[in-house]
Amino acid sequence: MARGITEDEVWKACDVLLLEGARPTIERVRLKLGRGSPNTVSPMLETWFKHLGARIKDPRAFAAPAASPDPVQQAAQHLWEVAQAEARRNLDDRLRDGLAMAAANVEAEKERAAISEAAAFSALSRATHLQTELENLRTTLDAERNAHLAALVQLEAAQHRAADLHSDLSAARQVVESERARADQAIAAADGRSAGAERRAALEIERERNLRAKEEKATVAMAKKFEQALKDQVSATAQLHAVEGRLSQLKTQSEHREQELLATSHQQESRLQELALALAEARGALASSAASPAWVDGIVAKLAPVVEHRAQPARAASGRAKPRKMQAK
Q: Is residue 47 domain-shared with residue 113, that is, in the same domain?
């Protein structure tokens, strides 16, 4: 009956294979032992792999036992262990220093990222405020344009009314001239009549005179209306000129303001791009802080010049991030 294999035998076979430069596998272990089923070897092999890392740290784990240890070998072994312990302490100190420095840099990058985000928020608020001012200025300009159009409508109405009054005055003058001519004809006819008809002629003349007086009064009233229409036209023209001057002034201010807002918008876009780069660097630093300990020595060697190189543009960016107040025109 075949004898079963033990875990110690499997471990020794794996150690031999590893020292020979071969990777321990189920088939190689079975060939090395000359027996054992795959189901039995597999869990023992997995256990060997789990403990391999801890055994590698111990230099005596794969060493063959000394046949007759002497004082020299023991002293050498002791020196070796002391050197290994000192190396481990140095490595641990370097790891701790490197991790502490990396943590400090990560915190600094976090603070720079917070400052960059605050500056970006301030720049966005300023851009929003400037946009609101531009909208208000455009609203005022539209109101002035509407007032200008209303003044033009009033001026056209006054001009039409003045034309109508002028036509009425011309018609009234024609009527007065016609009546005056008729009255003159009536007076001439009355003078040529007989004495018996003198009283009637006088009454007719008086009636004609009264009629002429009424017509003259109507003419004077029509002239006053025409004069008032001319005054209204002059007043409307003056108002139109004032509105046109105000509209031109607002248009100039609006164009100047739009140029300032456009320049400020370009500056804000450039600032946002700088802040985006600063945030990207901060995220890269945060991601690099999660690297494996195997890369700590490299980080420690490169950390100081990288931090100094990043600190200079960060300080400059922090100085530029202060919002500048725009002077009102």
A: no
Dihedral over Cα of 145, 148, 154, 156: its sign: negative
**Tokens 């290994």 sit on residue:** 84
Q: Which residues contact residue 35 at a Cβ distance below 8 angstroms, ignoring those fewer than 6 apart?
A: 2, 3, 5
Q: Is residue 239 part of a domain?
A: yes
**Largest Cα–Cα separation, the chain:** 187
Tokens of 225: 């209306």
268 with 123: CB under 8 angstroms?
yes
Local structure of residue 35 (DSSP, 8 states)? -
Q: Based on the domain organization, do 14 and 163 belong to the same domain?
A: no
pLDDT, tens digit only, all 329 positions of the chain: 456 789 999 999 999 999 899 999 999 999 999 998 999 999 999 999 999 888 887 756 555 444 445 565 566 666 667 766 777 787 778 768 867 776 777 687 788 877 878 877 887 888 788 888 888 888 988 888 898 788 788 888 878 887 887 888 788 788 858 888 886 887 577 577 766 667 885 788 798 888 888 888 887 888 788 689 778 888 878 887 886 888 789 889 979 888 987 888 788 888 878 877 877 876 776 566 554 555 545 655 655 555 455 555 545 545 554 444 444 44
By residue range, what is the domain housing residue 163?
90-320
CA 10 – CA 42 distance, rounded (Å): 10
**Consecutive H or E run containing 117:** helix 71-191
CB 144 within 8 A of CB 286: no
- Total structural domains within the chain: 2
- Find where tokens 């109508």 sit: 164
Contacting residues for 94 by C-beta, under 8 A, at least 6 apart? 296, 297, 300
Closest CA to 141 of 246, 213, 17: 246
* CB atoms closer than 10 angstroms to residue 151: 19
Residue that the structure tokens 């990777």 belong to: 23
Residue 20 · residue 9 · CB < 8 Å: no
Encode 130-144: b = buried (16+ Cβ within 10 Å), e = exposed.
beeebeebeeeeeeb
Residues 22 and 128 in one domain: no
